[in-house]
Amino acid sequence: MLIHRSNAPARRAAGRLLLAALVAAGAACASGGAGATGARVAAERGIYRPDVAHARPLTRAERSRFTETSTSADVRAFVDSLAALGSSRVVVGEFGTSGQGRVIPYVIASRPLVRTPAEARRLNRPIVYVQGGIHGGEVEGKEALLALLRDLAFEDYTNVLDSIVLIAVPMYNPDGGDALGPQERNRTEQNGPAQVGRRPNGDTLDLNRDYVKAEAPETQATLRFLAAWDPDVFVDLHTTNGSYHGYALTYSPPLNPSAVFTQAWVGDTLLPALRQRLRLKHRIESFPYGNFVSQDSVERGWFTYDHRPRFGTNYMGLRGRQGILFEGYSHDPYPKRVASAYTFLYELLSLVGDWREEVVDQSREADRRATGWGTQPDRAPTFTLRAALRTPSRREAVLVEALERTGDSVRTEPGLAPGLRRGRVRPVVMPIYDRFTPTARRTMPFGYVIPASETRAIALMRRHGLTLEQLPGPMTLAVERFTIDSVVRAPRRFEKHETVRLEGRWTTAREPLPAGTVLVRSGQPLAILAMYLLDPETDDGLVTWNVIDAALRVGGTYPVTRLAQPVLEPLTVLDR
Ligand SMILES: [Zn+2]
């Protein structure tokens, strides 16, 4: 489906032609040439193009022989040059603006080229969204995505851009990415480059904890983008922080048990097929993302991260879309990490292109079934609102990388303590903790009733793309109301919040509701997301992040109620 190594001679010829054309036009936009050394290092593993010296434009990583990473200005210049150099497969747009005023570009890449969501939908093929650099110091996803965009955009032959619509945001967090500092400070455990950005955005928010509360301008831009483009696949590119293992890359599906349409398909079908391709075609070992409790007690198990939708790929799972987390191996040298990320992306896009009908069907089916369940909740399954990582799903061999003492106090590589070096990789059979156990499950209501006075909650639900309606006059409806027995506030502030957990009990009553009361019907595609955001017992919803807060007290009631009957009367639909 995609360009491959067997095409290399033809591609090199095409590259030379392109280069000649550029020189003739005087349009070379990236100065300098990637030395053979840098290119060779990058090609050690994976399929990063071996002839990078002939490529145009060059990424900053390539220009610097993989000693530097692109700033937001570099990214902007690079993506603008794709179109300027004549690719008919890309168009550049503005995704949003960061808190410090940096424009975040996106690139739409497909053949035929599309410019609007309507044009993309008419192609009836997967829309795949890929973002790099949500954590500013984790840089290889950005570099790999830029290089892959170029290689796909200028490839003369049929490639994956004939099967999917790719939308790339190479540098999602430009304020964090441009806050360059020494790797020893900004990414203590990362093996280069020497200068990298920092993790949070310009307002010190971790953008990969913001998908529920959506406080950052970057997240708000995402929600506008999702409402318009509704991508079928969402890929988030990171670098690990911890354990020494034997994998060039690790990955994760949505982990929330309420991601009923995507967790199993991504986790048990798509990603294992990708793992197989990476192993057979490229001899790259990969594994579901996780960490050891400590490097000294690896036999205790391999633990994944978190199921809550504050994380982007989990959030996408609750929207009924395929979320894929990528984690490059921070202890691998920078050029190898770029090559691993490139190969992962190349094969992932290829697989999605090969399975395009199924991927598109998955989205349609998720919308149809969620809407159906919300319309007739007695036919719906129960949904998880809280979960914990309690039991292993299986025992399996995990590749463990040993750390050995060198006998002196010299630092052997960036990110590793002096006196240590990375040693042998060996498989160790251990319990794998990668499935969350539900600790609270609830039936789906007909909808949620929000008092008009809860303006922040109403605004946030609209941001998330939910359809909201308003009672044009007073109505009496059957509702379930939650009486609060305890309000548990986290002892430490987190992301500028004192997060909240509620305990309580439910009672049913017919209640008179005034005109202007807002209804979020479950009969819509985002019904499961609505439940997770609005329910008082959720572990990551509006109550968690103090959006619904002022009225919370022991003995009081949670202001949002569950609708316990269908509403057949037409209501006033609020504009998005
Ligand atoms: Zn990260």
Notes on the protein architecture:
With 576 residues, the protein is α+β, with helices and mostly antiparallel strands. The protein folds into 3 domains: 88-360, 3-Layer(aba) Sandwich (Aminopeptidase), CATH 3.40.630.10; 390-437, no CATH class; 445-573, no CATH class. It contains 15 helices and 23 strands. It has helices spanning 8-25, 36-42, 60-63, 72-84, 117-122, 140-154, 174-178, 183-186, 217-229, 263-282, 312-318, 334-354, 356-375, 455-463, 527-534; strands spanning 90-97, 103-109, 127-132, 165-169, 181-182, 195-196, 233-239, 249-252, 286-288, 291-292, 302-303, 322-328, 383-388, 394-405, 420-433, 437-442, 447-450, 469-470, 475-489, 500-513, 518-521, 561-563, 572-573. The strands form 5 sheets. An 8-stranded mixed β-sheet has the order 1-2-4-3-7-12-8-9, with helices on both faces. Strands 20-19-22-17-21-18-23 form a 7-stranded antiparallel β-sheet, with helices on one face. Strands 10-11-15-14 form a 4-stranded mixed β-sheet, with no helix packed on it. Helix 4 packs parallel to helix 6 (140-154), helix 6 (140-154) packs across helix 12 (334-354) and helix 10 packs across helix 12. The protein is globular and about 70 Å long. The two termini are 39 Å apart. The relative contact order is 0.11. Mean pLDDT is 92; it is low at 1-43. Zinc ion is lined by residues 135, 138, 238.
